[in-house]
Specification:
Length: 351
């Protein structure tokens, strides 16, 4: 224990929000020092990362959907869990080296936020990947707990705090009190599903094929979950599925909102189920405390209104919705001994 404390003085310990779409790294006293896409470019048919192992993150993201036959741009996480262990290990190793630097001889301790609904096997996979990527010691924290800490909610107090963390691959809904999760719901629905809904809509309605990056642009520019005061339009280019030729069309925010019905309904359903499981006293607290939302999908226009209308609760977007989980891992790291004591009953988190 004493040696680990000494090592902690000389290593750059870090908190990581290992997301389906983006990975954020937070360092104690420095805040967020890295925010890059969770993408790796490899030579097709191999696990050899291009550019001498450096085609990761921003560099690889630029290649998505535009690679020649000899190159693959891979997202090694889907629905918040690892689907390609070797590529995840290489990606984590690249990010850890980039932040930690090669001059620092002592390997860092790492806190990683993971979806609350993943299995023990999936948790073990995250730990193994991080250790092989260069971490001295790995701690896992559930994403909604990290989000609550990062958002500054009073989760250690005897009152209910509710967070809805809508990421790229998962949506985490949790009601917390006394530094623990009282009840939660984790569904594998997130920003990726909204992108997929746009792709499917354009293919079905207009015979137009577009890639994920362009679908994400549509979502950001004209996407909404509730009617807008002034509806929007946007031109979209893609490949005609019948002629095979490039084509441009104009789409509206109304039709995109219609395409979003399924993922929006899934999120509302997860929120409702979590509220139904809450103890009466915690549910009563939420009348005053309301619900807080974070994650990239929380930026979708009108998602707060839809949740407020379906639950009757006040809905607030946290101050820094994209960084809440990463900031929470950093605070968690700073107070590791306190959190370990509080959560000793949850042994699988501390393997």
């Amino acid at each position: 224990m004493f040696l680990d404390t000494i090592a902690g003085w000389f290593s750059m310990d870090m908190g990581i929000d290992l997301g389906t779409c983006n990975t954020l790294v937070c360092v104690r006293g420095k805040g967020i020092v890295l925010n890059e896409p969770s993408v790796v470019a490899v030579r097709k048919g191999t696990n050899i990362v291009l550019n001498g192992g450096n085609a990761v993150g921003d560099v690889a993201r630029e290649m998505l959907g535009k690679t020649p036959g000899s190159i693959s741009a891979i997202r090694p996480l889907k629905d918040g869990v690892i689907t390609d262990f070797e590529i995840t290990e290489k990606m984590l190793g690249y990010f850890i080296r980039k932040v930690h630097g090669r001059g620092n001889l002592i390997r860092p301790r790492v806190v990683i936020a993971v979806p609350s609904g993943i299995t023990a096997v999936e948790r073990r996979a995250v730990i193994d990947s991080a250790e092989r990527a260069g971490a001295r010691k790995v701690f896992l924290v559930d994403e909604p707990l990290a989000a609550g800490i990062g958002a500054g909610l009073p989760i250690t107090e005897p009152t209910a705090s509710m967070i809805v963390d809508m990421g790229g691959g998962t949506t985490e809904v949790a009601i917390m009190s006394l530094a623990d999760i009282a009840c939660c719901q984790s569904i594998r629905v997130g920003g990726d599903d909204f992108d997929e809904a746009i792709i499917n809509h354009l293919k079905k309605t207009y015979n137009l094929l577009i890639g994920e990056p362009r679908a994400e642009k549509v979502k950001i520019q004209i996407g909404s979950a509730a009617p807008l005061e002034e509806e929007l339009t946007m031109e979209v280019s893609g490949r005609d599925t019948i002629t095979g030729l490039p084509r441009k069309i104009t789409i509206t925010s109304e039709e995109i909102r219609e395409a979003f019905q399924e993922p929006v309904s899934a999120i509302i359903d997860a929120v409702s189920k979590t509220l139904e499981k809450a103890e009466p006293e915690l549910a009563a607290d939420l009348i005053d405390n309301g619900m807080h939302i974070c994650g990239g999908t929380s930026l979708l226009r009108g998602i707060d209104k839809v949740l407020a209308n379906s639950t009757g609760l006040r809905v607030e977007r946290v101050e820094d919705p994209l960084s809440a989980v990463a900031l929470g891992t950093s605070v968690f790291l700073e107070n590791l001994e306190i959190w370990k004591e509080t959560m000793d009953h949850d042994q699988h988190t501390w393997e």
